[in-house]
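Hey, resending since the last one bounced:
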Amino acid sequence: WATPRTARATLFYRIANLEAQVTGIHRSAYLTSVPGARISDAAGVDGSFYLSAALAYKITPSLHLRLEGLNLTDEPSRTWEGLETRRLVDVQWSGRTVSLGLNYTF
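The structure tokens again:
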């Protein structure tokens, strides 16, 4: 099944040794099966919006520092059954992920 509406936007900024990036991804609700597994007319997944960001700084030509955050909105994935009732079947949270790293090039 296809998602009726999907959109992605990325803003990127670079000045001297600093880079910044913010990305937003929207996905509308979509069906996963018709009929549903538990004697329902359909099953599907709720829509979602994910926001990610990254900052990178070039300390020297060989040494780079990067801070990155994924799923900053802490958006869960929700599955449901029944087109009219949308009975909740499952909720999964991957949570926010933040990482900091150094990269050295020889």
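The chain has a mean pLDDT of 91.

Sorry for the duplicate.
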